[in-house]
Amino acid sequence: MKIAVCIKQVPDAKDVRLDPTTNTLAREGVESIMNPYDQHALEEAVRLKEKFGGEVTVITMGPPQAEEVLRLAIACGADNAVLVSDRAFAGADTWATAYTLGRAVETLGNFDLFLCGKQAIDGDTAQVGPGLALRLDIPYLTCVQKIREVGEKALVAERMMDDGFDVVEISLPALLTVVKNINEPRVPSLKGKMKAKKAVITALTAEAIKADPASIGLAGSPTQVVRVFPPEPRGESAVFSGSVDEQVAQLVEKLKPYL
Amino acid sequence: MLKIDKELCIGCGICEEQCAFAAIEVKDGVAEVGENCNLCGACVEVCEPGALVSDIQGAVKTDLASWSGVWVFCEYRHAELAQVSLELLGIGRKLADRRGVSLSAVIIGSGIGKCAESLTGYGADTVYAVDHPDVEHFTEDRYSRILARLIGEHRPEIVLAGATAIGRSFIPGVATILDAGLTADCTSLEIREEDGALLQTRPAFGGNIMATIECPRSRPQMATVRPKVMKAPEFDSSRQGEVIEVDLGSGELASRIRVIETVAAGEETVNIQESDILVSGGRGLENEKGFALIRRLAKALNGDVAASRAVVDAGWIPYPHQVGQTGKTVAPKLYIACGISGAVQHVAGMQSADVIVAINRDGNAPIFNVADFGIVGDLNEVIPKLITKIEEHRQA
Ligand SMILES: Cc1cc2nc3c(=O)[nH]c(=O)nc-3n(C[C@H](O)[C@H](O)[C@H](O)COP(=O)(O)OP(=O)(O)OC[C@H]3O[C@@H](n4cnc5c(N)ncnc54)[C@H](O)[C@@H]3O)c2cc1C
Ligand SMILES: Nc1ncnc2c1ncn2[C@@H]1O[C@H](COP(=O)(O)O)[C@@H](O)[C@H]1O
Q1: Is B254 on the interface with A (CB under 8 A)?
Q2: Which of B57, B125, B146, B264 could share a disulfide with B102, CB 3.0–4.6 Å?
Q3: What is the dihedral of CA B147, B150, B153, B154, to 10 degrees?
């Protein structure tokens, strides 16, 4: 089974915040991590490989430093890593990202299964997976919490819904986006880390994937950010004082509109 | 690409401070942009001398003006209309009136007749009803193909859907088929006075920043909208509208996806995104039994139960109840966090609640930074007293 996993490097949420005095984004010490959902996608791919054989290719579109997450992915069991990187990709929205990843996949060849995270925690959009599937003209499911069976031509998965879940059969090749409870990702082994150090990473530029310049980066993005601003600050917080009974009484007073 | 006019740049460094991605840096008195610039434009806006320009060379579709009208996708599942659909008709009506255009609803399902008719009473001028046994269950490919075909035929300028499991699953497919811009999980929608463009505002980075997005060069302008932020209109039986039955071609019903079974909600899988009141428990509950306390408080308040990741991972409560960055984003009227420390990843999922209450024995827990009201104390003592007081109040 040939599996491709799309992973993204994102800033760690604990570092992304607004400086309360200047109202600008704090940039000191912003660390990058592999998008948490993508760790689950990768883990699922590695487990499928361990069970059915085959190989796992991780693909990321991003700046040169995104190589870090590719190496981490190799340490966690991926076989091949592809960095799709070019200044011309900068400013890509989900449409342009899906286009670019689609071109990269077509350059790389055939896969039986594509796994993505449900969403990237920087943009929280959850649009790249479906977009990529449409580009590749393959069916997709989002928010998969379990892969039940894998056959030659189809697989059966559980897809989370707002009111429970659906058990769904989907023909292969297919793309799935996964949620957190699908598995527990492993930590990289020592051997994996060694392998990651030595791994050769395939680099693909806009030219290499024969991308249409009008479809990549900001130019290819139908959506554009016109303004970034801090959320409305929450009001002052009040911690009650007095005995527990007094505090509870004060709280109930505040809760009256909801009772 | 971001361009820096070296003549104009005064090296003040304001752009550097503003950049969320650490992609711009002042070197030798001039700003320099790095590889990881993602052209969000935050720096352009703050640059007083106007030395920064993000030059966009995208092709503009020439026929933007020929797209007209506002469309709302109405979600129908298990013989029920999703509440967010009514909220969308509310905001959709407002946007349509601002633009002086009509509002249409699209509903897909099986046996939807009555429901489809009722949508006119909530503000739709036209309802496109796709009623067929094969679309009773949601499948990504059929739904996106059908909606994309209808949009292509009727060319609305704006298309809205709920940011629900279904909406967020197939609407990106529709946008891809139509080469349209799509903004996920919007919390505010406005029409810009000058040119009638749709301004879509949404939280990013777990709610740490807000971004306003537009689709300047293509139509339709598509958005999924977070449930519970828009107001549902009152039903008005005197409103007139037209229901159009949509015929499906056989190709449209082809699918590479087959729903074998739908496992519907038990008490444990209530959709916490729809709840007005959430009582949320964390590791401070100490064990699974601790959750009984949370359930009792939730019951006393007529609310539902949520949780931090720590307790979901511990197996005390299933994943659909998890709030936060890797769980659900909720915005109830009231959120009571009990024994939750308030890690950023948790706060990301609940900071847009109207009122946040924290109960924690550690007065320095970060949850108190976002809480409107807080009690520092042992939840085993506080919650039972709270329940008693609430019950007393109800009886009084
Ligand atoms: C990539 C990533 C994604 C994540 N996603 C999420 C997410 O989606 N949602 C999420 O919630 N977390 C998420 N986390 C985890 C998050 O960082 C925290 O670890 C988690 O939220 C902590 O849960 P908690 O507050 O229940 O537990 P703790 O942090 O252990 O806090 C327990 C609190 O209970 C208080 N307490 C203890 N006993 C009592 C008592 N008797 N009475 C009153 N108070 C008491 C303590 O003072 C403490 O503040 C994520 C982490 C990572 C790295
Ligand atoms: N730049 C990227 N490179 C590779 N995969 C990506 C990229 N952006 C998004 N993805 C994948 O698409 C998923 C959803 O991302 P998003 O639509 O940005 O929320 C992620 O979890 C990744 O699996």
Answers
A1: no
A2: B125
A3: -110
